[in-house]
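Table 4 source record.
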Amino acid sequence: MSNPSIEAHSAAEMAGRHFRYYDFVMAAFVAVLLLSNVIGAAKPAAIEIGGEPWVFGAGILFFPLGYVIGDVLTEVYGYARARRVIWAGFAGLIFMAFMSWVVVSLPPADGWEGQAAYESVFGQVPRIVLASIVAFWAGEFVNSYVMARMKIWTQGKHLWSRTIGSTVVGQGVDSLIFYPLAFWGVWENEAVITVMVTNWGLKVLWEVVLTPVTYAVVGWLKRKEGVDLFDEGTNFTPFKTQV
């Protein structure tokens, strides 16, 4: 960005710096991640288009917001801080799965008739939970890596190419892992492939539609933080949480 109040730095130079809004962006990312997984991930929905049912995963309506926030994290705060947030989300998913299992497993009080409904909503199948966690971890790290690398290649220009390009790859990895791992042999194979491809396309479309929002949020945060970080010399291993 050409704003004189924004200074370009390598991410390593800003390793120990405190950023005003980083914690809020992290909280938003984790909240969207957990809510979209617990509410919509396992439900196939359908709407009628041209007289034909169009099947898609219900979580697609909100889950892409997490990828938008992930793009903002990498673009504004660099790969290392995005990596820290991804691990926070990963831990949150594991705790959510554990808490759901404990609460569903507790025997209901006499007279309470909501156990069956409760189990249908929160009694997640272990394989779906595993698929969700693995897909999230792989997809988010691929998304962040592509975003950070493309920022260097484009010299910080053409933000739209980075947000859309990283989503094409990251969401592709996410969908290729999640749907076959979670639903192959449970749904009809054709339905798994249809939902997988449809959701991937919708996620990319969402990214395109939300590009103006991404530009606005990234621009605002960079002005407030006063820096534009580039991941030159960054250690891109996913297996650490230090900034």
